[in-house]
Structure formats: structure tokens, C-alpha cells
Design brief:
This protein has helices spanning 74-89, 117-132, 139-149, and strands at 2-13, 26-41, 45-49, 53-60, 63-66, 96-103. The chain is an alpha+beta fold and 150 residues long. α1 runs parallel beside α2 (117-132) and α2 (117-132) crosses α3 (139-149).
Length: 150
């Protein structure tokens, strides 16, 4: 089983100004994490998160298809989709896997604390999937894939 932990972030300054050209911000990693666990499966996969909600997914015409839609899973599904495209271009055949996302960046009832959980989820899922395929990624590749998924 693959396990990836990614910290949340906290802006010290410039959270909103950074979206304007020429402006800067300061962010730090915090000691709260998103953990992604991933293991191989056959014929279809599962995504488990948000108070143990489990979605079943498969592929149709090289697209990830989820049996039951839940918008809270959109960042996870987008990261999966982008990684599928990336590894396919690298000549690797996509496989099925079960993925579980555990968060210290939200309350027990699912309310986000505002510590970058969406970005952390995308980065953690991307890293876990590339590790699953034994692809030796660079930090720049993770950045680019996560940005595309976001």
C-alpha cells in the first residue's frame, strides 16, 4: 500500500494580493496533514473520503466514470484524470486502484479550516498515483500536474 502525507498551508501575508501580477505572499506549511492511501484493485476502483463516503469508479473510453456524483470529490477525480492522461502519454497502461483520503484539515462534520485542503488533496493524490505506477516524478511535474487538476 502506498501512503502519502502532504501538509496544509497557512498564509502569513498576501493571501489575496498574490493573485495580482507583481504582488507576493508568504505561506508556511503547518503540522496538519492530508494523508492518501492507495492500493491496487481489479475491474474498478473506489474513492473513500469525507466521513467514510465511498464512491465506485471505472473507466469508459479512457475517461474516469464515477457511479454516484458527489461534488466534494471533484478535486480527487480531477487529479486522477490528469494522472491518467500523464501516465498514458508516458506509455504506461492505466490500472484500477482504491484510494482513501484522510484529512486533519477539516472538522469531523466536514467543515474545512481554510488551510489549503483542496490543494493538499490534489498534490497528495497526484503523488500517490505516480508512486503507484513507479514513475519517478520531479517536484516540477507534481506542481504542473496539480495545477492542471486544480
Amino acid at each position: 500500500m502506498i501512503e502519502v502525507k502532504v501538509p496544509g498551508k497557512l498564509y502569513i501575508a498576501g493571501e489575496y494580493s498574490v493573485v495580482m501580477p507583481g504582488h507576493k505572499s508568504v505561506a508556511i506549511a503547518i503540522d496538519k496533514f492530508i494523508t492518501v492511501k492507495l492500493k491496487e484493485s481489479t475491474h474498478r476502483g473506489t474513492i473513500k473520503s469525507y466521513s467514510n463516503i465511498k464512491l465506485i469508479w471505472s473507466r469508459r473510453d479512457n475517461e474516469i466514470v464515477v457511479e454516484q456524483r458527489d461534488d466534494r470529490f471533484e478535486y480527487i477525480i480531477q487529479a486522477m484524470h490528469i494522472c491518467d492522461e500523464f501516465i498514458s502519454v508516458k506509455g504506461i497502461t492505466p490500472k484500477y486502484y482504491d484510494i482513501e483520503v484522510l484529512s486533519e484539515l477539516e472538522s469531523e462534520d466536514g467543515l474545512k479550516y481554510g488551510l489549503g485542503s483542496s490543494a493538499s488533496v490534489v498534490v497528495a493524490v497526484t503523488k500517490a498515483i505516480l508512486q503507484f505506477y513507479k514513475y519517478e516524478y520531479t517536484n516540477m511535474e507534481i506542481f504542473k500536474l496539480a495545477t492542471l487538476a486544480s
